[in-house]
User: Which sequence fits this backbone?
């Protein structure tokens, strides 16, 4: 029989206002096994913990129940407290009488009765608790960063600077990501490339960083501290060691009709190409879909003009395996497809473009060499209309329900830049709300209005209609004037919603990291652990976790790096002791459990079993404690009940059920 | 005792199994958002919806529960990636069997509630409790020995 | 039958097998028993006729632990069970030499008695190549009973007469399928909850917890059943107050769901004539309807439906939409 | 007491009259199977069934019965012993073999230490035995000296003769029941007596034609332990046994039980329930099981019935030849096969 | 019936008939931006939503807009919040029509309602919708 202590927290008035804590103490004290019960203002406080420790020592408690807030809040606190007092931390159970009781019930009698029952269930459970001891696993001192945008680069640099090896895997031919495509950045208006390129170079030059571009993660197994990852290096068709990056091949390449991914398809590139001038590595890639040599077998011009002899048409995809202790996901974003928004005529007119396309148009290295012109006829526009919230804050399936966060600011930036460079161009912005929470953000937006004369109209655009004269008729509402406006424009720029890069979904499956309905990776806690995935050892960097601008991305990248460094700095990890365990005497060796284990944690061995005097060789399930995460799928799959979950055993859960139904 | 001693009204016993990662957190959110649901609902925390053995559900009915609900992460969002898919099949078959032997439909339920869905948690529990009130006490699956 | 005996003798003689698992003549014509035969001489008591209904697959769990190979005779439906046991590593393929035997349906003496025939002294015409009706001799005179009228329910809804695993085949089978396997399940599904409850309450109230259904079941191959184990707080032998039988039969059916081949042994052996197959078939019907057709034991390397899933599986709430009111 | 009679048509009235005063237990058909059960207006009485699935044993030794109840309140435990039966009841329509089964149970439960639960039921139960008219192929009560037409040790014996039943009270309890039946019973006349004698003769002739007519217990009985226990015959016989409890639970004489606790949430109900020596966890102890192979368990059951029991009870076998195990064993094993297998082996015959 | 409860009842009825939750509206004005009959309307589509939110059904019932909406459903298509103003308008129309009694649209009323600028199709659809 356990000697149980019950500690009921008032949580100030959070609990005590609706639950009669004295009554809970009184009722709990009557339960079999309970030898001590008391209440206190704040059990989680130092004084409260001291009370627990004192009771453990004085009453020789073997288990404790804390009736307080959610175990998600303070279970760890009370476990540590118990451990300090010499009690196994897994002999602690929490009865959640705040979130699940006092906060939702108004009637004191009802809430008190429920609190007593919840306490009883926890007492019933702790009666069956057994001390558990965490295991240990080693940590591979190497990190993997998936995605080579600013988020990935920043995380990699920070981790590498702390002295750990980092591999960056980037699926495109160069690192740089979305930020490399931007022209200027808000609210300082400094040149994006000017601040990004040095970071790219630094990463490339860092002795602890290996960059694998044109590569993808193929398979991930293992667990925190000990991931095994297969990485596919796609065939570049260029020997990176030989290539000097002279660019002759690209100039001579006769196939020049492929749309440039970097310029968002606004112009073309050659079949052998580097995406942009500052690309790292400065090694081209042959687009085998477009290359004449690969399509017809004839051509080979690039090979002929390459003085270094770096072109290798025979190159094959290469898969290598590496071990990592931590993984940072920085897969970034893309703009959503606008196929379903016919009203904006995006697919009908070349002069309706997305904001990201405008970035390329404005950029000196872009398709128009930085001149603001209509893409349909190259004419200088007189009037540009910006439409906000295209696909953002949209509750139907055409768009995204969330705010994309960056659009208000970059639109102000675009409007301002255009008015600054071309004062003759009229700029109208249709907005629903202008959202500018950020340092110097609102000031920036006001400057656009006050100093640059950008015309902000509250109201949404209903329709963009290409006119026979090549102009665009914009029909919108002006909600403040309660008018419907029809105006001509030469260009329309759509502040298109952003969404996580589609590669994140299969990746999340490989990582067993959870993902929300919008494909953003879920954080371990929305407030307190925002850069960690719930899956241990996986860290989140940048927009893959949620919309954010560059400074936020860099900040989060740094935070993710710190978390990863914190992990890599450890030599060994203690593993969750709440793992599955097979009872050798009951196990049938039928493999049903292994079939449902998502971690491959169950294997089988043939073992001589002495079953009450009957000796025979039996096939028995064996759980690898380092791999098992304690979900319990196996315990239910097992028909004989041989498989049980420590900390959430069959008998413990049944005891809780019994206590509640009593 | 299904009848409230004072009022004589039926106060059901409802057991809610909640997975630690989504639904238990959703219940916490319902709590911190002060979204009320009946005190008849008592939550048991399990690591994952796939930890819930059909025997636990029958056990609850045996011991006098009037309704049992299982909440887990939305399909695709399981913390353990696949647990709720197994739970979904298991519970579908179990509920179908209970229906087959004449246990009233609606006495058992599965609902996917994410950590962000405090509102859904509360609405679900209100709905479920209302359903159990409508169905009345469980008599078809209880063990008479637990009655007195 | 003689062919089976001869072949068994050969296989014993040439050392292919060291023992034979089959059926031995009983003290009545209708009660042959499962037995091992270790010599040619013992095989003279071997029998294979319409009353040899026992599924020998489950006995192969124990036989797999013995030294040397065992010759086992499996009817077509038994081979599904054998495959399923193979799949679950409960039998050793290398320890079995399987002769697939022909089948024209298996007989149930209770069906004969149910026709009011009593005082039975002999039954003939039950062999594999026998006539369409069997002759039942009693102290009150002789009766002819149509073979199919004395057949077990399971044979009327036979899955087919193809052996799914074997080393060799002996004997011609005859198709016996003449009823809809799911008709009885569908009829119950169509009842009102009150009718359903009354039906199962009446059936299960007869249960005497003898465990015959469990012990004969090839899918119930646990070394120690949860209902015998102290580890689950589920150990129970009581026969009381209506709940325990439901718990036992629901959980038993659930544990074999997706693994049950519908061999029908549970219903065959129930001393109280409880149609236990209706539990298993309900799961089979649901699995087929919700997750696609699945036949346990079709092959030895399938993934059972309950250890499998698809992203688009039906939600449990579908139960509220299907079936009766 | 003189022979009385009642017509078959009057039976429902008789049942109602008895049930108005006492509990009435008799063969009732539920979902196609006949077992002893409590009579009520809607019960489908199946008095003429030759064999109920389970014997009438439940009436005196129920499959599960509560011994006492512990309730906990706070940290106090209150123990409430289960009340012993103190009301009269009637078990109606028990066959001769099952009556003999009750005599076997008496040996076990009524000898010191007396089982108070059983004793109370025996004291309050009135047994109305019914003679057999058409024994069937699995019957072998004659081997144990039982005459199916003359049930011994009953309070009342009834004999079905065509559409009438002859009725004779054998004890004081029987006379009381006869008095209760009152005008539903009429005096039997000489013609009835003759018809009854003819019916008995017919039944005996049936017995002689049945397949087990020549079964004897040669070689079995008290003090045969040594020659039987180590016989290799067991090893061959048990192989088909599924280790289920069917034979035990349908048997009128098997008397082993387990004592277990049921958690009611408010405490514990300690109950006993039939157990089977065929089960692998029968008499399981901390160190394991004293019979750890199925052969040993199989042997135990038959040795108990045919050797150990007679050894300890002046030669009385704890088998009554009802044949239920013969009908119900899922593996077609049964006590007759065991009896004969040893007789053959001992005569040097091959199987 | 008290005035308050009538207003509440009508607002609830509009929500029920339309299947629309007007509180989803984020006041972006895309409906009004889209509406081909905007200029004809006294209560603009986006305002219509606010009126339903406020329960000001009486004003809606009186409004010209009710009969100016073409039921082209452009606003339904384009509304990013799934608010469907046209369905609200449609529901309001039905309420007005139902209040008139059993026969909704009498043939002899049509001439006075006829507006040369209204598409013929609307008339046909109005028959279909309200006459049944």
Assistant:
């Amino acid at each position: 029989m356990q000697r149980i202590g019950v500690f009921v927290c008032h949580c100030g008035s959070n609990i005590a206002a609706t639950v009669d804590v004295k009554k809970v103490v009184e009722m709990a004290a009557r339960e079999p096994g309970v030898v001590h019960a008391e209440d206190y203002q704040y059990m989680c406080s130092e004084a409260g913990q001291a009370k627990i420790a004192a009771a453990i020592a004085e009453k020789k408690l073997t288990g404790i129940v804390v009736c307080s807030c959610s175990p998600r809040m303070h279970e760890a606190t009370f476990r540590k407290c118990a451990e300090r007092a010499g009690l196994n931390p897994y002999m602690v159970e929490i009865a959640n009488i705040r979130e699940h009781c006092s906060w939702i019930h108004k009637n004191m009698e009802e809430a008190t009765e429920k609190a007593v029952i919840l306490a009883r269930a926890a007492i019933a459970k702790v009666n069956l608790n057994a001390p558990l001891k965490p295991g240990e696993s080693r940590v591979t001192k190497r990190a993997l960063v998936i995605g080579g945008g600013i988020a990935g680069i920043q995380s990699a640099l920070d981790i590498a600077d702390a002295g750990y090896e980092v591999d960056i895997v980037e699926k495109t031919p160069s690192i740089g990501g979305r930020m490399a495509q931007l022209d200027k950045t808000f609210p300082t208006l400094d040149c994006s490339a000017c601040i990004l390129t040095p970071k790219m170079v630094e990463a490339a030059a860092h002795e602890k960083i290996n960059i694998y571009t044109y590569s993808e993660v193929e398979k991930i197994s293992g667990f925190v501290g000990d991931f095994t990852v297969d990485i596919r290096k796609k065939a570049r068709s260029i020997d990176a060691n030989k290539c000097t990056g002279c660019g002759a091949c690209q100039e001579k390449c006769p196939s020049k009709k492929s749309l440039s991914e970097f310029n968002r398809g606004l112009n073309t590139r050659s079949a052998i190409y580097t995406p942009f001038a500052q690309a790292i590595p400065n090694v081209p890639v042959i687009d085998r879909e477009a290359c004449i040599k690969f399509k017809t077998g004839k051509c080979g011009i690039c090979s002929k003009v390459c003085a270094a002899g770096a072109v290798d048409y025979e190159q094959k995809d290469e898969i290598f395996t590496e071990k990592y202790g931590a993984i940072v996901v920085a897969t970034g974003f893309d703009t959503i497809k606008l196929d379903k928004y016919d009203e904006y005529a995006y697919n009908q007119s070349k002069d309706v473009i997305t904001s990201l396309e405008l970035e390329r148009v404005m950029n000196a290295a872009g398709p128009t060499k930085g001149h603001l012109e209509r893409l349909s006829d190259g004419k200088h526009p007189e009037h540009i209309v910006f439409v906000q919230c295209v696909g953002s804050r949209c509750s139907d399936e055409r768009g995204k329900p969330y705010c994309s966060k960056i659009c208000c600011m970059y639109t102000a930036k675009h409007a301002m830049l255009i008015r600054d460079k071309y004062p003759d161009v009229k700029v109208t912005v249709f907005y629903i709300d202008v959202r500018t929470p950020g340092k110097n953000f609102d000031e920036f937006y006001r400057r656009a209005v006050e100093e640059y004369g950008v015309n902000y109209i509250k109201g949404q655009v209903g329709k963009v209609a290409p006119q026979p004269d090549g102009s665009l008729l914009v029909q919108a509402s002006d909600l403040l004037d309660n008018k419907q406006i029809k105006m001509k424009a030469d260009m329309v720029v759509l502040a298109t919603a952003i969404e996580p890069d589609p590669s994140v979904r299969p990746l999340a499956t490989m990582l067993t990291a959870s993902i929300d309905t919008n494909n953003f990776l879920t954080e371990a806690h929305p407030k307190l652990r925002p850069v960690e995935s719930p899956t241990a050892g996986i860290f989140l960097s940048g927009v893959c976790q949620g919309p954010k601008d560059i400074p936020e991305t860099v900040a989060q990248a740094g935070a993710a790096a710190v978390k990863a460094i914190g992990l890599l700095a450890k030599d060994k990890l203690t593993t969750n002791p709440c793992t599955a365990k097979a009872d050798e005497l009951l196990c049938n060796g039928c493999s049903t459990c292994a079939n449902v284990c998502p971690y491959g944690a169950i294997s089988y061995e043939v073992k001589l079993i002495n079953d009450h005097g009957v000796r025979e060789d039996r096939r028995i399930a064996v759980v690898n404690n380092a791999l098992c995460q304690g979900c319990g799928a196996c315990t239910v799959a097992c028909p004989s009940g041989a498989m049980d979950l420590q900390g959430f055993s069959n008998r413990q859960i049944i005891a809780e059920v019994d206590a509640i139904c009593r | 005792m299904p009848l409230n001693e004072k009022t004589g009204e039926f106060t059901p016993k409802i057991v809610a199994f909640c997975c630690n990662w989504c639904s238990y957190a959703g219940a916490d959110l319902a709590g911190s958002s002060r979204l009320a649901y009946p005190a008849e609902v008592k939550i048991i925390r399990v690591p994952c919806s796939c930890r819930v053995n059909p025997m636990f559900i029958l056990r609850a009915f045996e011991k006098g529960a009037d309704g049992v609900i299982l909440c887990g992460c939305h399909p695709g969002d399981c913390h353990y990636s696949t647990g709720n898919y197994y739970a979904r099949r298991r519970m579908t078959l179990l509920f179908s069997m209970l229906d087959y032997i004449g246990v009233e439909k609606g006495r058992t339920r599965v609902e996917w509630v994410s950590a962000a869905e405090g509102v859904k948690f509360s609405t679900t529990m209100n709905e479920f409790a209302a359903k159990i009130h409508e169905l009345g006490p469980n008599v078809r699956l209880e063990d008479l020995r637990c009655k007195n | 039958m003689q062919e089976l005996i001869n072949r068994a003798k050969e296989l014993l003689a040439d050392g292919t097998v060291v023992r034979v698992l089959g059926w031995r003549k009983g003290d009545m014509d209708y009660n042959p028993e499962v037995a091992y035969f270790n010599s040619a001489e013992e095989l003279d008591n071997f029998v294979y006729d319409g009353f040899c209904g026992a599924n020998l697959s489950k006995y192969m769990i124990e036989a797999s632990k013995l030294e040397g190979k065992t010759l086992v005779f499996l009817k077509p439906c038994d081979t599904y069970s054998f495959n399923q046991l193979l799949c679950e590593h409960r039998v050793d393929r290398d320890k079995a030499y399987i002769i697939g035997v022909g089948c024209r349906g298996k007989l149930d003496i209770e069906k004969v008695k149910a026709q009011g025939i009593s005082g039975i002294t002999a039954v003939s015409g039950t062999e594999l190549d026998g006539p369409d009706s069997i002759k039942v001799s009693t102290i009150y005179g002789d009766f002819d009973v149509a073979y199919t009228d004395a057949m077990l329910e399971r044979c009327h809804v036979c899955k087919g007469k193809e052996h799914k695993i074997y080393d060799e085949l002996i004997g011609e089978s005859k198709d016996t399928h003449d009823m809809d396997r799911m008709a009885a399940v569908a009829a119950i599904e169509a009842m009102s909850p009150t009718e359903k409850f009354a039906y199962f309450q009446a059936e299960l109230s007869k249960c005497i917890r003898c465990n015959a259904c469990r012990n004969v079941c090839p899918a119930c191959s646990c070394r120690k059943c949860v209902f015998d184990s102290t580890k689950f707080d589920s150990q129970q032998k009581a026969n009381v107050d209506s709940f325990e039988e439901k718990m036992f039969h629901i959980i038993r059916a659930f544990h074999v769901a997706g693994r049950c081949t519908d061999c029908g042994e549970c219903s065959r052996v129930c001393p109280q004539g409880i149609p236990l197959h209706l539990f298993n078939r309900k799961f089979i019907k649901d699995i087929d309807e919700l997750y696609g057709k699945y036949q346990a034991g079709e092959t030895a390397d399938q993934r059972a439906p309950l250890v499998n899933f698809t992203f688009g599986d039906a939600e449990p709430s579908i139960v509220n939409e299907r079936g009766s009111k | 007491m003189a022979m009385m009679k009642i017509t078959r048509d009057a039976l429902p009235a008789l049942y109602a009259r008895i049930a108005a005063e006492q509990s009435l237990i008799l063969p009732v058909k539920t979902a196609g199977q006949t077992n002893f059960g409590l009579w009520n207006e809607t019960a489908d009485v199946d008095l003429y069934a030759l064999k109920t699935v389970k014997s009438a044993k439940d009436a005196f030794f129920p499959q599960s019965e509560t011994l006492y109840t512990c309730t906990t309140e706070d940290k106090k435990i209150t123990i409430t012993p289960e009340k012993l039966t103190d009301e009269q009841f009637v078990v109606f329509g028990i066959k001769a073999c099952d009556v003999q089964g009750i005599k076997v149970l008496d040996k076990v439960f009524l000898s010191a230490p007396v089982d108070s639960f059983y004793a109370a039921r025996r004291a309050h139960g009135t047994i109305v035995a019914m003679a057999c008219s058409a024994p069937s192929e699995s019957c072998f009560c004659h081997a144990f000296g039982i005459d199916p037409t003359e049930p011994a040790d009953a309070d009342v014996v009834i004999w079905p003769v065509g559409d009438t039943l002859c009725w004779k009270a054998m004890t004081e309890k029987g006379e009381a029941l006869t008095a209760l039946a009152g005008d539903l019973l009429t005096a039997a006349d000489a013609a009835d007596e003759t018809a009854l004698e003819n019916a008995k003769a017919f039944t005996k002739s049936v017995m002689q034609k049945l397949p087990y007519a020549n079964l004897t217990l040669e070689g079995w009985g008290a003090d045969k332990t040594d020659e039987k226990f180590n016989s290799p015959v067991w090893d061959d016989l048990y192989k088909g046994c599924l280790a289920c409890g069917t034979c035990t639970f349908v048997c009128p004489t098997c008397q082993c039980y387990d004592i277990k606790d049921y958690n009611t949430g408010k405490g514990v109900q300690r109950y006993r329930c039939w157990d089977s020596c065929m089960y692998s966890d029968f008499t399981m102890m901390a160190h394991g099981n004293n019979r750890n192979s199925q052969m040993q368990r199989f042997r135990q059951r038959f040795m108990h019935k045919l050797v150990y029991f007679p050894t300890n009870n002046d030669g009385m076998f704890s088998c009554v030849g009802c044949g239920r195990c013969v009908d119900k064993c899922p593996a077609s094993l049964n006590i007759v096969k065991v009896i004969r297998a040893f007789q053959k082996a001992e005569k040097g015959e091959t199987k | 019936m008290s005035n308050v409860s009538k207003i509440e009842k009508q607002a609830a009825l509009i929500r029920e008939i339309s299947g629309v939750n007007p509180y989803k509206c984020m006041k972006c004005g895309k409906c009004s931006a889209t509406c081909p009959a905007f200029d004809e309307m006294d209560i603009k589509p986006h305002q219509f939503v606010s009126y339903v939110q406020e329960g000001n059904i009486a004003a809606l019932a009186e409004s010209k807009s009710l009969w100016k909406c073409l039921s082209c459903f452009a606003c339904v298509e384009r509304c990013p919040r799934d608010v469907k103003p046209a369905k609200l308008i449609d529901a309001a129309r039905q309420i007005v029509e139902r209040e008139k009694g059993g026969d909704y649209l009498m043939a002899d009323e049509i001439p006075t309602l006829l507006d040369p600028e209204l598409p013929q199709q609307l008339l046909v659809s109005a028959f279909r919708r309200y006459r049944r």
